[in-house]
Amino acid sequence: MTNDVIICVKNLVKTYGNFTAVNGISFDVHKGEIFGLLGQNGAGKSTTLEIIETLRDKTSGEVTVNGYNLDNEPGQIKKIIGVQLQTSGFYPNLYLVELMRLFAGLYNRDADPMHLLKLVNLEEKAKSKFKELSGGQKQRFSIATTLINDPLIVFLDEPTTGLDPQARRNLWQLIRDVRDKGTTVILTTHYMDEAEALCDRVAIMDAGNIIAMDTPDRLIDRLVETGFERPKEVKKANLEDVFIYLTGHEFSQ
Ligand code: ADP
């Protein structure tokens, strides 16, 4: 394993009865990168991530996270990762600062709730309830909860699904900030523009296999080299550009 590999997955298999959800995949995630796992629903992304997160048992294969073998030291792995919780688990009537304190307690961490809220630009909402937040604010809060234990790696599951274009860009910037502080980020997304803009490398999964893995740029170049062309000339702007231009450049929450 080279020094800059933080997650190493080798021949990972997961079967449910006689159905194979993950079919012997191998990949490395490098320290400090944003790594995207792409694929249609059912491709095996969540299963793969949940195995690495120690939340699901594998059938076979080898997973190493920051040098810790999943089979022998899952407890060590848990300590160095941050996993985005389903927002449905957030008590709607607690203030954000209280919720954050609660989660910090669960991690047994002496984290400063206000510092965490500040990291995601929610300090002014400390005395708001979760249910009073906008979609983008909820996502930002949930990202803050992944940072409580000062993790080396954070896992984000479709972090921008359902958000408006500005709020998505705001989240992208937040995710880049997390990466720029040295944290490795693994995310899933169904938005290819998001993967292209945000991910340093992506793996594309299909029916339990990884069918491509590289930087977005190189994957695109390789497709173009095959002679592929878009069916029609692309305009210099698209409707999303129009929307962002008209509704202002300020990021929405
Ligand atoms: P993705 O995250 O890419 O949408 P999943 O990893 O959730 O895909 O699922 C991969 C495949 O495994 C799907 O066909 C799904 O139905 C199946 N699957 C997931 N969890 C279970 C389970 N607990 N029991 C049986 N099949 C499952």
Descriptive account of the structure:
The chain starts with a strand and ends in a 6-residue tail after the last helix. Helix 3 packs across helix 4 (113-119) and helix 5 packs parallel to helix 6. Helices cover 34% and strands 25% of the residues. The protein contains nine helices and ten strands.
Task: Offer a few descriptive terms.
single chain; 253 residues; alpha/beta; four-stranded antiparallel beta sheet; 9 helices; 10 strands; 25% strand; globular; binds adenosine-5'-diphosphate
Mean pLDDT: 91
Distance between the termini: 41 Å
Radius of gyration: 19 Å
Question: How many beta-strand runs?
Answer: 10
Order of helices and strands: EEEHEEHEHHHEHEHEEHH
- Report the structural category: alpha/beta
Ligands, ions, cofactors: adenosine-5'-diphosphate
Largest sheet: 6 strands, mixed
How are the strands ordered across the major sheet? 6-7-8-3-9-10
Low-confidence stretches: none
- The fraction of residues in strands falls at 15-25%
Percent in helix: 25-40%
The DSSP helix count reads 9
Q: Name the overall outline.
A: globular
